[in-house]
């Protein structure tokens, strides 16, 4: 089934992605399958969502895998990418200390949970880095009709998800996280609120347009996207994490 | 360019946050450089000024600790200060104090090693003369430090450079908490992660300018001190 | 009495000092004479305890309050005054004493100069002031007037004799001037290749040496 | 403890990845230390060995650059090597070469500054003697470097310590690509981000052991060289 | 002819050298004499070009191929041989020449020793070998025998005279020994507080000085 490597002009695909997909182990798990199936080699660099997209802007990526809809649309609007292809999702979750001092377990929506946190004056750690997660968090505060930014229980850390979870753990505070990073992260925090539709976190693939940098590996990017959206890859995604966490970390979109 | 103008606007404009960040940065760097110097210079002078068995090994360990990865040093301090750590009850994590502690852990070996290296150059001659008039080993050490004053000032500036430029440890134990423990480097890191590369570089330039100012000031004070 | 037994110093398989047995009597004055490299400095450094011999030991019948001036004394980057005062304990330091010591070696006019900016002879004089500013009972001086001018040499010799008298002090110095040895000391030890080849009164060793090496050496003694 | 056992298992067990990471780490640190030494020591010797107008300012700038935040240096190198940068066509980004370039940018000022500081101690005396027999300024510089050999070896070890311990710049320009540019520090950072602190620390201990080994080796070679 | 005009050197408002006019003739031998701190080293350093005067200038009628030995010459951490050879250009270095120079100062037995491990006198001798290993037409020596023993002094003086003769070289040295000046040089310059207070034949200045300061100074000239 392996296509002859000779047919591939440029076998190296540079994938720029966010820490959540990489640190959760999903990509390292998929990588060997992809490489074996297609004969391509994939070089994964992960960074904050902003940096991951920026690296695609500077021409240092062939393909993008991120989860920040509006930034992605801007990116494509500016003519850097071809098309945004949502292919998997998971959920944001609200995590916090086991004791749950704000009692958010009883809340029915995320906004309600946030309001409970604000009312109880419990600490809340915000990523504060304009990432997809941060944008989502701000949206929930807005829905709850609360502006927490000046409150002293509101800790804005300007950091990645992993570090934010660490701070929340230490401060016995609440935070909003994507589920994959939370499950992969070692800490004492408890998953307290898991919502359905309004806490959905969608990941998309974008092939970088070859128009700007002639050596952009467009064919490779398309091959990667094609493979990632193939039934085989989607099955692999749905299976990932079940063995370790008892549930999948990501859900494929078919 | 654009980023630099933005940074300068931040610095001198309405937004007081950059000024606040610079204040925390300076507080942290100056205090940790001070403490590291107070620990590292005497320790380095002790090692550099004397001949003793196992000196080679002490120097090797010091040299190795000079290459302690900031992240590892930061993590170690984190684990000590964390809620479940031995000093967890002090609740120092995510404070400027915690950052100072981490910096002291990282910089002290540097001050120690460089001081030992420098002091070892004039040490034999000073020792012979000083011992000849019955000066105690402790006072000898003091004299050696005095004689290497201007070189040790450079060493202190090296320490300060490390303190102000370090990000790994400071991020872990300080947490980059807005209005509290956010310093120049963690702010730069944040901008970088947000993909605002040029703005990050501009903040870096601001940091270098501050660094240069401190250097020039210290050099000026030192040259005045020479009379 | 200071006694040396089986003292040996070896550098890279070369024996630079080899003293089976040697005694210095207390309150006597000694000069070490010998060509360059004969081991004078090495012997003084071992006596001063700043150099460890490879074998043997130095014993002393009384506790020594020792002063040792190396061949190239170190001058600190502070005033001449302070350079001299470092020899004294902090509490003892008396400006008058320091000035007196500086006067004795003809350096009082430079008391405020920086130690590290002195000329060669000035440095040596300052170092001598450092030695005589406080009492001691064993004074070891390595070529104390090598860089001094002839007037300075007279002055220093006078000061040294006075100091040794005042303090009842044992003096051991090295010198390249037989004349100086005759003026200053009771006994001369002639060193050759690390060995004391003759020891005796200055008069005997320098005017009537038994050893042909010394005879040949003294042939070069000109005005 | 658990983490350490895990790290040792990784190191000696079936999994060859840690060994591969260590190989990349050593390659990167040694090459960049080598290049920085070749640049920084002569430059530092040049500055330290001579008296010239504006020397003070040169030293201040060097001192300031010693405190260049790695993230900033890394970002600058990133922007130069990126596809949209002036050297984009070389396609060096996310390679060991790129990491070496970033390290050289960071370490060379350190080597330069420390060398200048050290050389300045014996310089005046050597200069007077050497000038007296008509030795050219260039050969004088060489003699000064030779005389400070053992102190400069310490300096090189300081540079190596920085190279092996640095993470910010290396992460940005190397990208922490598995099997390619992942080094000890970026691996440690990754573990830290996942909250696997003890494993991260254990990797740090492994790194320190390597660092110590290099130190001991260099010291051994140097002491043998003295004969 | 080497001419000094209006040379002044001032440290911290203290004039340590003040020479309105001074001429050294080519191929003549000069000694600088004076008490410690009188400015001998300062004058030599200015002549050697290693120190800039605060005013005035030194001019030379012919291009100088100059050699200057400081008062405390530096000994490098490599062999004595190599220490001497550094004076020569890489291509010129000849083992025989080096060994010859070392022999002339009585240091050939230490050719393989480390320069930085020598005794005081040995260091000075090595530095002298470094000066005479290659030709020059202006030789400036700062107290070249201050640390040498009396036999070594004879040997060095002989070697120096031979070198100066062989090379038709102008010699300017400083010394604390009037006797040495009489043995080595044609003219003596007596320095006092930075001024040349008398200049003339060695015989005249040292045996029949006009200046009372010199008279008083020479009173200390003993054997
Ligand atoms: N860098 C300096 N700063 C201040 N004073 C200095 C400096 N160098 C020399 N001096 C002073 O200048 C004077 C002349 O010094 P110089 O070395 O020329 O004396 P000299 O005649 O060679 O003495 P000596 O016989 O002791 O070698 C001395 O009093 C010395 O203290
Ligand atoms: N650290 C050392 N390593 C090797 N050789 C040494 C060392 N120190 C001294 N020597 C040698 O030991 C011998 C004796 O040295 P020492 O300094 O005692 O001589 P000295 O009699 O004081 O000579 P000088 O009259 O020149 O001062 C010399 O030949 C010297 O080269
Ligand atoms: Mg000696
Ligand atoms: Mg002089």
TrEMBL record, chains B, D:
<dbReference type="Pfam" id="PF00528">
    <property type="entry name" value="BPD_transp_1"/>
</dbReference>
<keyword id="KW-0812">Transmembrane</keyword>
<feature type="transmembrane region" description="Helical">
    <location>
        <begin position="199"/>
        <end position="221"/>
    </location>
</feature>
<dbReference type="InterPro" id="IPR049783">
    <property type="entry name" value="ABC_perm_TupB-like"/>
</dbReference>
<feature type="transmembrane region" description="Helical">
    <location>
        <begin position="20"/>
        <end position="45"/>
    </location>
</feature>
<feature type="transmembrane region" description="Helical">
    <location>
        <begin position="57"/>
        <end position="81"/>
    </location>
</feature>
<keyword id="KW-1133">Transmembrane helix</keyword>
<dbReference type="GO" id="GO:0055085">
    <property type="term" value="P:transmembrane transport"/>
</dbReference>
<feature type="domain" description="ABC transmembrane type-1">
    <location>
        <begin position="22"/>
        <end position="218"/>
    </location>
</feature>
<protein>
    <submittedName>
        <fullName>ABC-type tungstate transport system, periplasmic component</fullName>
    </submittedName>
</protein>
<dbReference type="InterPro" id="IPR000515">
    <property type="entry name" value="MetI-like"/>
</dbReference>
<dbReference type="InterPro" id="IPR035906">
    <property type="entry name" value="MetI-like_sf"/>
</dbReference>
<keyword id="KW-0813">Transport</keyword>
<feature type="transmembrane region" description="Helical">
    <location>
        <begin position="93"/>
        <end position="119"/>
    </location>
</feature>
<dbReference type="GO" id="GO:0005886">
    <property type="term" value="C:plasma membrane"/>
</dbReference>
<keyword id="KW-0472">Membrane</keyword>
<comment type="similarity">
    <text>Belongs to the binding-protein-dependent transport system permease family.</text>
</comment>
UniProtKB/TrEMBL annotation, chains C, E:
<dbReference type="InterPro" id="IPR003593">
    <property type="entry name" value="AAA+_ATPase"/>
</dbReference>
<dbReference type="InterPro" id="IPR027417">
    <property type="entry name" value="P-loop_NTPase"/>
</dbReference>
<dbReference type="GO" id="GO:0016887">
    <property type="term" value="F:ATP hydrolysis activity"/>
</dbReference>
<keyword id="KW-0547">Nucleotide-binding</keyword>
<dbReference type="Pfam" id="PF00005">
    <property type="entry name" value="ABC_tran"/>
</dbReference>
<dbReference type="InterPro" id="IPR050334">
    <property type="entry name" value="Molybdenum_import_ModC"/>
</dbReference>
<feature type="domain" description="ABC transporter">
    <location>
        <begin position="2"/>
        <end position="218"/>
    </location>
</feature>
<dbReference type="GO" id="GO:0005524">
    <property type="term" value="F:ATP binding"/>
</dbReference>
<keyword id="KW-0067">ATP-binding</keyword>
<dbReference type="InterPro" id="IPR003439">
    <property type="entry name" value="ABC_transporter-like_ATP-bd"/>
</dbReference>
<protein>
    <submittedName>
        <fullName>ABC-type transporter, ATPase component</fullName>
    </submittedName>
</protein>
């Amino acid at each position: 089934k392996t296509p002859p490597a000779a047919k591939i002009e440029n076998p190296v695909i540079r994938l720029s992605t966010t820490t959540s997909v990489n640190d959760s182990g999903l990509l390292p798990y998929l990588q060997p399958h992809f490489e074996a199936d297609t004969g391509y080699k994939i070089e994964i660099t992960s960074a904050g969502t902003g940096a991951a997209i920026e690296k695609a802007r500077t021409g240092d990526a062939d393909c993008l895998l991120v989860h920040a809809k509006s930034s992605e649309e801007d990116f494509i609007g500016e003519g850097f990418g071809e098309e945004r292809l949502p292919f998997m999702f998971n959920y944001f979750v609200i995590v916090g200390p086991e004791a749950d001092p704000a009692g958010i377990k009883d809340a029915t929506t995320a906004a309600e949970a946030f309001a409970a946190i604000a009312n109880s004056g419990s600490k809340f750690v915000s990523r504060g880095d304009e990432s997809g997660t941060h944008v989502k968090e701000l949206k929930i505060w807005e829905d709850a009709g609360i502006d927490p930014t000046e409150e002293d229980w509101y800790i804005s850390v300007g950091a990645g998800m992993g570090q934010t979870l660490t701070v929340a753990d230490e401060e016995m505070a609440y935070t909003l996280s994507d589920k994959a990073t939370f499950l992969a992260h070692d800490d004492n925090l408890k998953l307290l609120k898991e919502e359905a539709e309004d806490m959905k976190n969608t990941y998309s693939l974008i092939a970088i347009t070859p128009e700007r940098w002639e050596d952009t590996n467009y064919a490779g990017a398309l091959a990667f996207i094609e493979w990632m959206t193939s039934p085989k890859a989607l099955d692999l995604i749905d299976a990932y994490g079940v063995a370790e966490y008892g549930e999948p970390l990501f859900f494929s979109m078919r | 360019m654009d980023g630099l103008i933005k940074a300068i606007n931040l610095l001198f404009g309405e937004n007081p946050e950059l000024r606040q960040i610079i204040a925390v940065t300076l507080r942290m760097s100056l205090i940790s450089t001070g403490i590291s110097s107070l620990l590292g210079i005497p320790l380095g002078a002790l090692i550099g000024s004397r001949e003793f068995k196992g000196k080679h090994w002490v120097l090797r360990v010091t040299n190795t600790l000079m290459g302690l990865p900031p992240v590892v040093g930061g993590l170690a301090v984190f684990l000590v200060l964390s809620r479940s750590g031995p000093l967890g009850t002090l609740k120092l994590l995510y404070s400027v104090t915690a950052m100072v502690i981490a910096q002291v852990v990282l910089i002290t070996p540097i001050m120690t090693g460089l001081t030992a290296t420098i002091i070892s150059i004039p040490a034999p001659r000073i020792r012979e003369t000083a011992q000849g008039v019955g000066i105690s080993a402790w006072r000898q050490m003091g004299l050696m430090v005095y004689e290497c004053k201007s070189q040790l000032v450079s060493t202190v500036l090296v320490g300060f450079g490390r303190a102000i430029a370090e990000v790994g440890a400071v991020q872990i134990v300080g947490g980059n908490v807005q209005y509290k423990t956010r310093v120049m480097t963690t702010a730069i890191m944040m901008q970088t992660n947000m993909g605002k590369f040029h703005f990050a570089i501009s903040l870096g330039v601001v940091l270098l300018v501050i660094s240069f100012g401190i250097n020039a000031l210290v050099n000026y004070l030192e040259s005045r001190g020479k009379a | 009495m200071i006694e040396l037994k089986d003292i040996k110093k070896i550098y890279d398989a070369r024996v630079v000092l080899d003293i089976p047995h040697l005694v210095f009597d207390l309150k006597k004055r000694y000069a070490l004479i010998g060509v360059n490299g004969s081991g004078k400095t090495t012997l003084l450094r071992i006596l001063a305890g700043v150099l460890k011999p490879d074998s043997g030991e130095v014993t002393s019948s009384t506790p020594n309050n020792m002063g040792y001036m190396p061949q190239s004394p170190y001058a600190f980057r502070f005033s001449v005054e302070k350079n001299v005062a470092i020899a004294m304990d902090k509490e003892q330091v008396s400006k008058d004493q320091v000035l007196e010591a500086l006067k004795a070696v003809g350096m009082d006019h430079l008391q405020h100069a920086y130690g590290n900016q002195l000329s060669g002879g000035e440095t040596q004089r300052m170092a001598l002031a450092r030695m005589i500013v406080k009492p001691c009972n064993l004074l070891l001086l390595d070529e104390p007037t090598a860089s001094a001018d002839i007037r300075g040499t007279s002055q220093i010799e006078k000061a040294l004799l006075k100091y040794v008298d005042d303090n009842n002090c044992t003096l051991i110095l090295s010198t390249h001037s037989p004349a100086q040895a005759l003026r200053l000391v009771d006994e001369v030890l002639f060193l050759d290749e690390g060995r004391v080849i003759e020891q005796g009164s200055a008069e005997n060793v320098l005017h009537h040496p038994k050893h042909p090496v010394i005879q040949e050496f003294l042939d070069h003694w000109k005005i």
